[in-house]
Specification:
The chain has 232 residues and is α+β, with helices and mostly antiparallel strands. 16% of the residues lie in helices and 34% in strands. It has a six-stranded mixed sheet. Strands 6-18-17-13-14 form a five-stranded mixed sheet, with no helix packed on it. A three-stranded antiparallel sheet has the order 10-7-16. The protein starts with 14 loop residues before the first strand and ends with a strand. This is Fumarylacetoacetate hydrolase family protein. InterPro entries: Fumarylacetoacetase-like_C, Fumarylacetoacetase_C_sf. One of its GO terms (molecular function) is metal ion binding.
């Protein structure tokens, strides 16, 4: 975009590092999947039936890179982590079939769906949207993207998060209720996916609060680690 043609300076597009290259993955939209591990559904008091996946979005500029210090957000006293597999889309499409879905993936990474849990729960009780509980500033820490050509399709393996060195989430990607191809197929019925979209695929059980000074380290097999610290 030509900045001289705009009445204000256009914002920069968020980008994620790509492992093995100096090139970046530009992020267009962030889609998230809710309630995609049975144990997490149970801990949140939800129905364990295999209902259609729940989708919501975060703004692209909520991304925080690996190693950052992120401020404790305002308007909450119950700030939670949710560790998730990130899927990076290279080829768009509408109504993509599960059989074709993997062909649309550029790579995988690690993400955190940071949540103002008290606001999310209060809004949910009265049937209002989750945005202020989910889509706030700095709410999406993300690690680098690992291309499929380097790691293959990451559809199973350990997903684990520690807070100050203590394990809080410890599960396996194979336990997703909706698998990655099904997520892409379902999501693409509602939105035309585009190159640059990323999808956070849901979190396992063990979510909980953090406080200023907490250090979060997430890991997924083949995808290294994501480390962030909570500041005041």
């Amino acid at each position: 975009m030509d900045a001289d043609a705009c009445v204000i300076t256009p914002p920069e597009r968020p980008v994620l590092p790509v492992v093995g290259t100096s090139q970046k993955f530009p992020v267009r939209r962030i889609y998230c999947v809710g309630r995609n591990y049975v144990a997490h559904v149970r801990e949140m008091g939800g129905d364990e039936a295999r209902d259609p996946p729940i989708f919501f979005q975060k703004p692209a500029d909520s991304i925080v890179l690996d190693g950052a210090s992120i401020p404790y957000p305002p308007m909450t006293s119950n700030y939670h982590y949710e560790l998730e597999l990130v899927v990076a889309i290279k080829k768009g499409g509408h109504d993509i079939s599960p059989e074709d879905a993997l062909d649309h993936i550029y790579g995988y990474g690690i993400g955190l769906d940071m949540t103002r849990r008290d606001l999310q729960m209060d809004l949910g009780k009265v049937g209002l949207p989750w945005e202020v509980g989910k889509a706030f500033d700095n709410s999406c820490p993300c690690g680098p993207i690992y291309p499929v050509e380097k790691v293959g399709h990451v559809l199973e393996g350990s997903i684990r998060l520690t807070v100050d060195g203590v394990a809080k989430q410890d599960s396996d990607l194979s336990l997703m209720i909706w698998k990655v191809p099904e997520i892409i197929a379902n999501l693409s019925k509602f939105f035309t996916l585009q190159p640059g979209d990323i999808i956070l695929t849901g979190t396992p059980a063990g979510v909980g609060p953090v406080v200023p000074g907490s250090e979060l380290v997430g890991s997924i097999d083949k995808l290294g680690t994501l480390r962030v610290q909570i500041s005041n």
